Amino acid sequence: MKSRKNLPVAALRAFEAAARHGQLSSAAEELGVTHGAVSRHVSHLETFVGAELFEGARNRPKLTAEGRVFGFALTAAFDQMEDALRIIGRGDRGILDVACLSTFAMRWLIPRLHGFTARYPHYDVRLATDDQHARNHIDVQILVLPGETVIPENGSLLFREKLALVVAPSLAADNRTDVLALPRLETRTRPDAWREWARLTHTEGHNETGGTRIFDHYHMTIEAALNSLGIAIAPWHLVAEDVGCGRLRAPFGFVDSNYVYAVQVIRLGRPKTEHFVKWLKEIAHQDSRIL
Questions:
Q1: Which fold is adopted by the domain 95-156+264-290?
Q2: So what CATH class is 4-92?
Q3: pTM to 2 decimals?
Q4: What is the mean pLDDT of each run of 10 residues along the chain (291 residues)?
Q5: Which is nearest to 167 in space by CA: 113, 256, 232, 254?
């Protein structure tokens, strides 16, 4: 078996084109060389493999049986190489797959993505939420972890979560005890939020028997709070814009929760992931300075 470093690559390209077109002249036109150059490459390749690949008149040669088999195999091999080059190129320039929770995507990431796309217009960010897409195609994922959890390999801290009780201005009262008497809005995906917030703010025992409405996802719970259906415990990054513009109020302020957000790179060594993670950390840092 000959070493790959001795493979006659130029001759292989010339023969593959000639076999595909069925004419040396068409192969020469495709490759931008002369008819004679293609003929010499084919002759060199025949010597290299020890078999005739074309037969018949020199001006109208036909593939031999060996030539047809070899030509088919070379075309398949070149197609595979072209596909690999397209995949690699698309990995650096095209689609950027990001996995995160749906509420995080809707209320934090999507409203800020215009900044990333303005800086990197050649990237197309595609979001996968709530494990609805196969994770083997993910480039970057944003994780929510208990504070004591070790951040996974190739991951780094994005920000520490803060919690707040939020209420619509129409329901807000000067007396915070009156606020606590309002109906509670809870989220199935985080059923311990009220207990966690009460422990952190030392308000255990207030309105534990009051009315409760439960929603499947945080974005529904926040929407219910915005529409004056009750009071909700929400992470700061999900309601910061609403509190800042007065659509919601946070009468008890914000307290550190037991969770952190982290970003993990799944596909390493790609400029697109490095650019996205750097931008994500910049935005998270800017947001943290607002509170």
A1: D-Maltodextrin-Binding Protein; domain 2 (3.40.190)
A2: mainly alpha
A3: 0.64
A4: 71 90 87 89 90 82 88 86 66 78 92 93 85 65 90 92 94 83 92 91 69 90 94 94 93 92 91 93 82 56
A5: 232
